[in-house]
Design goal:
This protein has 254 residues and is α/β, with parallel strands linked by helices. The protein is built from eight helices and 13 strands. The strands form three sheets. The protein has a six-stranded mixed β-sheet with strand order 1-2-3-4-5-8. A five-stranded mixed β-sheet has the order 9-10-11-12-13, with helices on one face. A two-stranded antiparallel sheet has the order 6-7. Helix 4 links the parallel strand 4 and strand 5.
Amino acid sequence: MSDTKVYLLDGGSLVIDGFHVFWNRGPGGEVRFPCYGVLVDHPEGKFLYDTGFDKEHVEKVLPFEKPLQTDAQTVPGALKLAGFRPEDVTHVINSHYHFDHCGGNKYLTSAKTLCHKTELEACRSPEPFEQLGYSDRAFDIADDIYTPNYELLEGQVEIAKGICLIETPGHTAGHYSMLVELKGRRPMLFTGDACYTRQNMDTDCISSFHLDPVASLNSMHQLRTLAEEHDAELFYSHDAESYEEYLKAPGYYE
């Protein structure tokens, strides 16, 4: 845990309807939300959790999500801002393989990819209603992961001292959230898409892009319990209001 730093890498933003953010509750209308990656600079390696979206792919396949992304918000640009290069990243962890969480994997060809076994299976054979979510397959070439080395995981896994992946299925079949312990502050619990926003958590309202709504709600409750047990601060995946308060790279948490 000593000498560990956590950088939040701004990846731009997308738009979805409010009824998707707050399932069957709304209010409706366009909601612009952030996408970001989490770089954990750790004595055992440099671990990148989620890599955002690929703007070219979104403009081609999902233009209605109105992507905004500068060169500085791509994975190479965001890493440069934090003082790193893509080849410095030793491990890529995707919370899941929806297009807005894996779009930058293609830049990280020197890294080992850590992924949930069930999630890799799901993205290769999605349910019909999941097709758009899993539409960016640039990381998955000829039935092999884009990054040349990968490891399939299951269950709760400590991938390095103080970095724990927590199974939170429902949004997708093999979704992982991440808990990071630091020396000088409260632990950081990254929800991934198991919980989009603080309002989702506070109102027990899941988001609509899910495989299993009951499992989604259970996973959100699990995250709340974990945060209480570890006195952890929750960092939400797509919460524009909370994101304004987060420290972004080149700043870092330690």
